[in-house]
Amino acid sequence: MDTEIQKLLGLTEQQLDILKGIDRTSTLGKSRPKDIEQAYKTLTGKLIQKSNMFAQLRELQLGEFVIKTNSFYYVNKNKIKQVLLEKKKILGNEVSKCEALTKNIDNFFKSGSEPTILRCLNKEQLFEHNLKVLRDAEILCKIGDMPNVLQSDIYKQNLGSHEYSRILIEKCSKGQFTAKYIVSLRPEKTFLRLFSKIKDKKRTYELTAICYDNLIKLLTIPNLQFRYLSIEFGTFNLAIGPTMASLQLPLRTSVYELAGGIIIENKDICESYNTMFDKLYESAQPINIQLVKKIARKNLKELRDSMDKLIKEYGFD
């Protein structure tokens, strides 16, 4: 904070320390030069030469940051507030200019086509990328069966995605981020991923069922939006921000095992996927508590009936 105040007021580090020394001595009712000198030493652990201190006090008086009455010095808080408000106005104008230029940059640089950036990431790199997306993007659009945000803590810990979900839910709760999901709510892949880790059929079923309970809890967050589509489409993530757009396609070693992802960064491609997502989202069914409970009863019954077959089919028995 000291560095920021120093920059905004145009002061040196020593001048700011002198102001803090004056403030300290004023509180004690003693703000003569010798008192300021002692307070400076106490605050910084350094000595200051009298000639240098008087030179700095004159500079601070010229800037109206310090008022001298008889032999006593006082911090002029009104002047400091005035300078900060003026800086805020200037910075606000600069921010507005930057925002306007950002929106019109395509008109400014008209020639040339935008390159396509393509990256293949392993699982660890993919999670790091997703955390960065949460910082840079404003909207996330995702199609999937049972997205990570619905999963149990044990699932997230095994996958290494606990922090990602925590930040996403927190930012959506604060209105800083919007996440839109189209989900089929099919439980089979979640069951297989968990069973491959814990090898306990009953416990795996219980952890899979938690996803539906978590969905009901998350329905109370306005910026976390879910729509239901019984037909499964290919999974993808689309992140959109003021200066970025990123499409993510999963790489799998099996139907349930994530190996990493392909990241595509190209404005036209991302706009195409965004248009497709919006059309699907409009046609998908809004989710409420009653619908979640209905789907959960049906899907979990089917899962109970097919668990042994799934375990055998994917070579776990």
CATH superfamily of the largest domain: Endonuclease Chain A
Largest sheet geometry: 8 strands, mixed
Overall structural class, as computed from helix and strand content, comes to alpha+beta
CATH class of the largest domain: Alpha Beta
Helix-strand blueprint:
Blueprint: H1 2-9, H2 13-27, H3 33-44, H4 50-62, E1 66-69, E2 72-75, H5 77-103, H6 105-108, E3 117-122, H7 123-136, E4 139-144, H8 153-159, H9 162-173, E5 178-183, H10 188-198, H11 201-218, E6 224-228, E7 236-241, E8 244-252, E9 258-265, H12 267-283, E10 285-286, H13 289-313
Parallel strand pairs: 4-5, 5-6
Antiparallel strand pairs: 1-2, 3-9, 4-7, 6-10, 7-8, 8-9
Write structural notes for this entry.
- The model has no long low-confidence stretch (mean pLDDT 87).
- The chain contains 13 helices and 10 strands.
- The chain starts with a helix and ends with a helix.
- By secondary structure, it is an alpha+beta fold.
- The strands form 2 sheets. It has an 8-stranded mixed β-sheet with strand order 3-9-8-7-4-5-6-10, with helices on both faces.
- Helix 7 packs parallel to helix 9 and helix 10 packs across helix 11.
- The protein folds into 2 domains: 80 residues, Winged helix-like DNA-binding domain superfamily/Winged helix DNA-binding domain (Arc Repressor Mutant, subunit A, Orthogonal Bundle); 197 residues, Endonuclease Chain A (Endonuclease, Chain A, 2-Layer Sandwich), CATH 3.30.870.10.
- Strand 1 and strand 2 form a beta hairpin.
Features:
alpha+beta; two-stranded antiparallel sheet; eight-stranded mixed beta sheet; Endonuclease, Chain A; 13 helices; 2 domains; Arc Repressor Mutant, subunit A
